[in-house]
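Recap from last week: sequence in, structure out.
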Amino acid sequence: MFAMAERDEDPSDKDIERFEGDTAWCPSCGSEIWEDSVACPKCGDMIEEGLVHRPKLHRPSQRKLTSITAIVLIVAILFGCALYGFIRLF
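Predicted structure tokens:
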């Protein structure tokens, strides 16, 4: 049978020396990355235009806004129906 080689998951001294600098932020997705990164590990975009030294402000996604709007409309309709039913009783 084949013997499984033990994996070394710890960073090497060379890796630690390379990445001991400051972190910055990906200009595409806003993820925190090492300053000397070539590509963002989260979004995969190549870092060509330079790093951002502050986090990117995220705006709520369109899907999230649509969901919130739908919930508010459903609650308003249910409240309107309940109010209409209550008024018809009198």
